[in-house]
Task: structure prediction
Amino acid sequence: MAELVNVAVDAMGGDNAPEEVVRGAVEAVSEDKRVKVFLVGRETVLKEELSRYTYDSDRLEIVHASEVIETGEPPVMAIRTKKDSSIVKCMNMVKEGACDAMVSAGSTGAVLVGGQVIVGRIRGVERPPLAPIIPNINGVSLLLDCGANVDARPSQLLQFAKMGSIYMESVIGVKNPKVGLVNIGVEEEKGNALTKETYPLLQNCPEINFIGNVEARDIPLGGADVLVCEAFAGNIVLKMLEGVSSALVTKIKAGMMTSLRSKIGALLVKPALKSTLKDFSTEAYGGAPLLGLNGLVVKTHGSSKAIEIRHSILQCIAFKEQKINEKIREQIVLGD
Amino acid sequence: MAELVNVAVDAMGGDNAPEEVVRGAVEAVSEDKRVKVFLVGRETVLKEELSRYTYDSDRLEIVHASEVIETGEPPVMAIRTKKDSSIVKCMNMVKEGACDAMVSAGSTGAVLVGGQVIVGRIRGVERPPLAPIIPNINGVSLLLDCGANVDARPSQLLQFAKMGSIYMESVIGVKNPKVGLVNIGVEEEKGNALTKETYPLLQNCPEINFIGNVEARDIPLGGADVLVCEAFAGNIVLKMLEGVSSALVTKIKAGMMTSLRSKIGALLVKPALKSTLKDFSTEAYGGAPLLGLNGLVVKTHGSSKAIEIRHSILQCIAFKEQKINEKIREQIVLGD
Result:
């Protein structure tokens, strides 16, 4: 039997913890025998939650952690002082090699800070990008960086492009993924100082399939598989996607309630509409990996339900089996 | 009788010129007796177009311009060499005081460059922002800057906030408009170097109603009336709005065609859906003013139809009557 993929799961993180996190973990170990989950959090609470399910107890263990980092806490301080928190414990299990990966729906700030200071960067990686999968009209794209560190350097964007390409190809299964630089025009000379300096670096990088600048208008239309930008821009892209979708759906629903005719129509289109919107939701694609660390750290949406937790756990299998970090090490060391 | 508002209209600019531009101009002078339009472009073509309509010829004149600046041309060179182009001629009419304002659906680059080098900035204005009106779930917001000059300074963002507030209050009619700084988090300390330095400037400015940082997610939900950012971020906001709306509508329409049930429903909801989407289109609100110039320059979407041209011409009336530029002069001189 092949080696198990060990995943530490922050059972206390997110709006729906621990119930949905525990359920997602149970579903993951039931679905795939290659994975073992360590549920990290308050033992008594987790024991009670787990008592509702039947599962393979060889592949689902509780690891007690007495503290919880709340989303509002200043991340650096929280990581430093709450040594027995579920996030810090998960991070330490990855750092020490007991786990290959960790998943958390908790404080984004604490996950980002902990990833860097506890798990640590792969030697040569300048900055680990947070890389959510976002939906587009034809499938999905990887958007990086959406982390907390803004004002990136061109050399960091080059690394994002390499790491993103590896992830998109090996984990998501997109062959020779198209890499686009998020910019305000398609011509090479467009943009700010950062994009102008980054463009030739991407163009001259043999490891990636660079297709040039991508305007924000083309992102939802599937303009590129890997979208490279610094975190301020990435955050705006991600949150506009969420905000516009949500506003438009609210408008459309309200619009359909304005006449008897459209009310009847609304009843008829409801199932089709629901499935379309599910396809186009940023929450439907598991978690966002924090790439370039000594182990995999996956941040899922704070509002994650069991399905996202399950997907996030299962994506760790491909990450390990496809030797993503070995590939990143090779490319970053070779390329720099 | 009060003085007429004289508007130069680039009759050759945009995808639908001259037909839709001429029609929009005829509609504008028919709708409001306070406005006089100078249609600038090739005389023979425009005469022929105008021959289809009846209109008050005292308030609609043709001004001949032999050249046209195409959208693909490098703007600086085009403005310099094509002295007899419709855009340059419109700009000169504003500069010389023959017109109060100009409207163009032509090359954005040429309009931005020409606005600065021909019409010229109001003394004290560091950078004239391009300020489109964007739809939100409850109404509209003014987003500035969406121009071509990126990497703005904090003092420029402060000026954008002041000019945007004046425009939103006096032209759009929003009392005491809420000003938000586009950022990646709501807390004061969030963001990049630019937003961190800009925040206290906005907070300490008595002329504006600053409500703090606004995350991109809240922009489509109507988080602020005036959204302040530098042009790279503004461009992403604007184009994500267009791109997500377009992608989502395409998805929803395709989704409704998947079953007989939803096809029938689609027929019933079609009118309601159409009116909702029209409300939420970035093209439904006339043009984007380039603020802070010695006269008003309005850039409308390249795909503008007569209705947008008409709206863009009519918004020049409020701009003049409300003495926007006098107000900007006062605030910029007083405030700096």
